Amino acid sequence: MNVALLNQLIQLFLVMGAGYVLYKIKYIDIPFSQKLTRLLLDVTLPLMILSSVMNSETEKDFGKIGTVFIFSFTMYVFLTIISIVIVKILHFPPRQQGMYMFMHMFSNTAFMGFPVINALYGSEAMIYTAILNVFFNLFAFTVGILIVNYEGKNNSQTESTASLINLKNIVTPGTVGSLAAVVIYFLPVDYPGIIKGFCSSVGGVTSVLAMILIGSTLAKMPLKIIFNDWRVYLFTIVKQIAVPLAVWPLMKLAVSDSLIRSVLFILFLMPVGNTSVLFATRFEKDEELAAKTVFVTTLSSIVTVPLCLNILNIL
Predict the structure, then answer these.
(1) Looking at domain 3-311, which CATH architecture does it have?
(2) CA separation for the pair 147, 151 (Å, rounded)
(3) Whole-model pTM?
(4) Residues lower than pLDDT 50 in the chain
């Protein structure tokens, strides 16, 4: 088992635990969490992405960037299809089917993915994570809205649901920062040290603040509701272990570059993202289900991520 990965995951979880405790002892409250979320998404995460490409000294390769664009798009198309298939096979309750589909599609590629990839591969790989983040937002605010509102045989609101899609939501600072990072990546410019230092300093707090935010979010849930649903455990095993192990051989065939393949696969292994809770709240779906699934998959990822990578001999 890769010691660097395990150490990084343990460190992230310790910080997450600090966020949990800080919320319980009332150093953090709901208004503070909301402001922290905006700070992360609108300021520190975009600057972390920009910093990674400004400080990159690797050879610029249009072919690799094109591969990541194509595969990221293909990956979310695949996730859309496989999420529908899995939910139908596992016979989840109709009113929860859309929520389970959404949770399977949209992992925590930002708050956990960026810190893990940065720790394992450095700035060279951050551009790949940034590109995937573009497609995350593109799919979340289009296909994701349709998916989260799906209710199996009870679904009869396709037309009204489609009207909820607002393409302006795709244009977030994170998406703009990711696209800007791709442009900056190829510009033959040596950026001033002050600019690089600013982006690096502010962006550098993203990992810690993100995990504190996750911990504080989990602390809002009563423990008695977290571990009372066997379907969440079944879903966790399928999402975190079964599907990734089944997908890896396809990824090896589709992507020849080992670094790109490893980065995208590790992002594929990430637990359910906080976006699921936000969308459940926004569209009045099962917020409790979303919250406890985020908790269980995040907690289990300290085992499932190294386990999958060890079984497949990655890293």
Answers:
(1) Up-down Bundle (1.20)
(2) 9
(3) 0.82
(4) 158-159
